[in-house]
Amino acid sequence: MRYIKDGTTRQRPNGGPNPLERAMHALKDLFTSDVGLMSLAGIVFMLGMGVFFVRFFLSHMREDAARQEASRPLR
Questions:
Q1: What tens digit of pLDDT does each residue of 13-62 get?
Q2: What is residue 11's predicted lDDT score, i.e. its pLDDT?
Q3: Which candidate in 14, 25, 36, 45 could, as Cys together with 30 as Cys, close a disulfide (CB 3.0–4.6 Å)?
Q4: What whole-number distance in Å separates Cα of residue 65 and Cα of residue 75?
Q5: Any bridge partners for residue 9, and if so which?
Q6: Is 8 helix (H, G, I), strand (E, B) or coil?
Q7: CA 57, CA 64: separation in Å to the nearest integer?
Q8: What is the CA 11 to chain-centroid distance, rounded?
Q9: How many CB atoms sit inside 10 A of residue 54's CB?
Q10: Adjacent-strand bridge partners of 3
């Protein structure tokens, strides 16, 4: 990919679309089309679920370890 002095880009030698233009088109579709927005909502939901479950499991692991330590007899 070659950049021209004014900041625009040229087509690739084989005539295919520029990778930067393809990526920008994909981002435009992601944030403006109904299918893209539903995909974005699904991605955000799944990431939120992942954060929730990691925090949930870690807190319960700490509680179980503390409960086990408290029930251990003194020597």
A1: 666 678 888 889 999 999 999 999 999 999 999 999 999 999 999 999 99
A2: 56
A3: 36
A4: 19
A5: 3
A6: coil
A7: 10
A8: 30
A9: 10
A10: 9
CA distance 49 to 43: 10
| Tokens of residue 11, six digits | 């087509």
Give the chain's radius of gyration (CA, Å). 25
Indicate the length of the chain as a whole number. Answer: 75
AA identity, residue 54 = V
pTM: 0.65
- Two tokens at 2? 């070659």
Structure tokens at 13: 């030698």
Contact 30, 36 (CB under 8 A): yes
Smallest Cα–Cα separation from 57: which of 68, 69, 65? 65
Q: Which two tokens stand for residue 64?
A: 């179980």
Six-digit token string for 74: 């003194």
**What's the CA angle centered on 39, arms 37 and 42, to 5 degrees?**
110
